[in-house]
Amino acid sequence: MNIVVAIKHIPSIADDLPVKGNNVDFDSVDFVLNEFDEQSIEQAVLVKEAVGGTVTVVGVDLIGELDNVLHLALAKGADKAVKVTADEPGADSHQQAKWLAEAIKGMSPDIVFAGVQASNDLDGQIGPMIAAYLDMPYIGGVSSVEAAEGTAIVTKEFAGGNAGKYSVSLPIVVGVQAAPKPPRYAPVSKVRQVAQTATIEKISPSADGAGAGLSMKKMAPPVVTGHAEMFTGSSKEVAAKIVELLKSKGLA
Amino acid sequence: MLTTIEKVIFILLALVSAGFTIHGIKTIVDSVRKGRPTPELKNVPSSLLKAGVAVLFQRTIFKARKVLSTIHLGLFFGLITYAFVNLVDVLEGFIPGFELIYGGRNFAFTFLPAGIINAFNLIADLMSGALLFSIAVMMMRRFVVKDKRLNYRENVLLNPKVKAGAHQKDSATVGLFVVMHVAARLLGQAYRLDTGADPFMPIASFLNSIFGASQTGLHIAWWVSIAWVLYILPYITRSKHTHFTVGPVNLGLAKQNPHGQLDPAVPLKVVNGNHYDPGAKFLHDLSWKRVLDSYACVQCNRCQDVCPANFYGRPLSPSALEVNKRYLIKEATFGSHPDRLLLPLTETVISPEAIWSCTTCYACVRVCPVGNEPMADIIDIRRRMLIDGAEIDSGVQNALQSLATNGNWMSKGKRLRGRWAKEMEFPVKNATEEPVENLWFVGDTASFDERVIPNTKMVARIFNQAGLDFGIMYQNESNAGNDVRRVGEEGLFEQLVEQNMQAFGKAQFKQIVTTDPHSFNTLKNEYPQFGGKFEVKHYTVTLLKLFEEGKLTVKNKLSHYKVTFHDPCYLGRYNGGFTAPRKLLELLGVDFHEMPRNCENSFCCGAGGGQIWMGKVAPGERPAENRIREALTTFEKNSSDKKQLFIVTCPKDMVMYSDAVKTTGNEGKIEVRDIIQLVAEAVGVEMPIEAEPAPSPA
Ligand code: SF4
Ligand code: SF4
Q1: Fewest Cβ atoms closer than 10 Å to its Cβ: which of A203, B123, B274, B560?
Q2: Is residue B297 helix, strand or coil?
Q3: Which residues have CB under 8 Å from B160's CB, separation 6+?
Q4: Per-residue pLDDT tens for A157-185?
Q5: Does any domain span residue B547?
Q6: Residue from the list B389, B412, B415 with its beta carbon closest to the beta carbon of A184
Q7: pTM to 2 decimal places
Q8: Could you say which ligand is closest to the alpha carbon of residue B320?
């Protein structure tokens, strides 16, 4: 089975997000792999382990540091890594979907996995748009995939803890919400070994702009407006304070 | 004394016995040699000699169980005496006129004065009594009183033979041997006394007064006594009683590197061009020393007694690990299951759950009388499990992932590491930008954990007030890797060491000061192997020095506090840092009370070796909770209405024990404080005027 995983490198929010002008200050922020993509890599490797095949991981190299992420994916069980060398840290999901689709097109995949969304755009567009560009069906919110020759059983999550099982025919693009198992750990020694031996295929991005056409007006950290006041004391005292507060606000 | 036929039979039997014994010894040597190389041992003869002396004085067993250890003295000296006694017995049997009773009255050889012979008789006689008494106590303990400490928890993985009580049978056999052998020998001597009592053989004389003298009796007793020896010698090479001989040898070959330095995951020395994968999956992936450990093991369970994981009801028993190894080898060599050596250790000697329960507290290694290191096996097995992609606890995995990307386990950005310092009322130097005398290696918990940061700031204030020239490395500091290594992630450990070594390379400093005992341990004991040649001090030592130099002075004595102190494993047991914190407490004038388990015997808080990262919390009384109760009992014995404090010198302890005070419902009775809080109160630290800035939204 020919499995492709489209991944996204995004600014880390482990630090305070630095802002420059009306966007993130891309020079002083670390980039990390989108956490839903971690799930989708795991799902891809699980499918490969179940039915055989190859897993190819594709991503857009926005800041020239994607290799680390690709090495990690290879250490976790992916077989091939491809990067689109865009060097455009601000490229939005629409633009990235276009580039990714162009890279995937020639691979004739059976399944393309993509994280269902990413925390920077939060628009869940990568998967559906790749599907549109490649003229393949899309199913999102997926929590498990069991593939067979030409078909797959896909579990999709719904609100309220419900899940639906779909039988889909391949090829298909799958938006992964979660893998059935937590993503495996790749020991650093293995990642380092991969980093020394692996070759990463490079693809140049096409020039035509396919962005969403939206532009950022302003970006700023949220303003802190006062703190919560904690009432302390016995339950009676606390109750009295609450009543008093409600009264002072004219609510009781 | 013996007839010619008897002599021939004896010689034949002795040859058979020797053959089996030699085969037994050879089997041991062969299986030990199959293990991997250990780090090089220096000056082996002298350490063997030292171990011999330690064993002669039975020093190592007295680390625990004082009463039983005293009884063991009887067995030990009794059996040593009996090695000579048996020799004499054989000579008495073979050489006409060789008889030592009555001061050698019938002794045909004139070179030995009667005084020496009498002394020998007296010692042999009394030692026989001591042996019988000691073995009776030991057998009572095992089979009648059924000392619980000799059992294993239900959930501990045991070799089926052990589970069926093979080790008990083993003890019974040897116990029976000692009883029969010694009793027969005593009786034999009694039968020899044909002219009444010999004052130098009180016990034999007493028996003689009952049974009289008899040549037939003598022959039978001689044979019973000696036949047992011929049987037991080969038996011993196949039983737990190899500890008689392997124990001392093992002690002599024990690790020479610092306690706090783990052996490498892959041997540094390659034998016969072998390829080694990191860590251990099968028995012979362990170093030969770990294989020898299993032969040395007495199965005394002293290690299990002190194991915090075992206390906590986890399926881990360091002694079961050794016993299982032993029976695994036995089945493969003397039994019919060499194939079992090809099963992973996680199926044959220790369960994966047990593997992940070890806090790497070192208590098992410290207490073991024969120098075993069960903990080293555990870490080697973890190492291979990680490489082989075994499923690991999600909490541990998150921590490792964050360590790989952020250099800390708390999923915080690198740049947040020095945030607390930027909030200080005075500038805290960046040691990677300007020279400092003391490079303060802060550690993850003290840098990021909101509960601990006030103490971190207090340390900075005290250092500042004392005029100590210090700086931190801000975002250039990474986790030192102590617990990463002990979780078994050797590659990540090396990566962290590289990052820190790079940062140290940018900095100019005279020495490193740490607030975290875990960082302290690896910086001091393991970084030298990666080129880190620097002096490392724990902050308790630095503080003490500041007092001694008069840079800090106690303004208010703290006699209104009743205080006990918890030795952190990585400061105390690993690195012997017992005195500085105690001297500090003395200087501060607190009312100090030692808990029963202190210094070397300190009880682990349960956080080490990656346990603090575990996502799952097992039910049962946690080690930290037990420790808080121990502190309270200590205080109860010295009751007064002073405020009761539990003093720690490790940021992880601050978190662990504050938690334990809450979960045991003891808030208000006891408070956990870092020693720095007491120092601050005693020296009267100048606090900033404005309140602590509120944490800004993450
Ligand atoms: S190091 Fe501590 S926790 Fe680990 S086995 Fe030994 S005593 Fe138990
Ligand atoms: S490992 Fe040491 S302490 Fe533990 S049972 Fe064996 S001899 Fe006793």
Answers
A1: B274
A2: coil
A3: none
A4: 998 889 999 999 999 999 999 999 989 99
A5: yes
A6: B389
A7: 0.90
A8: 2
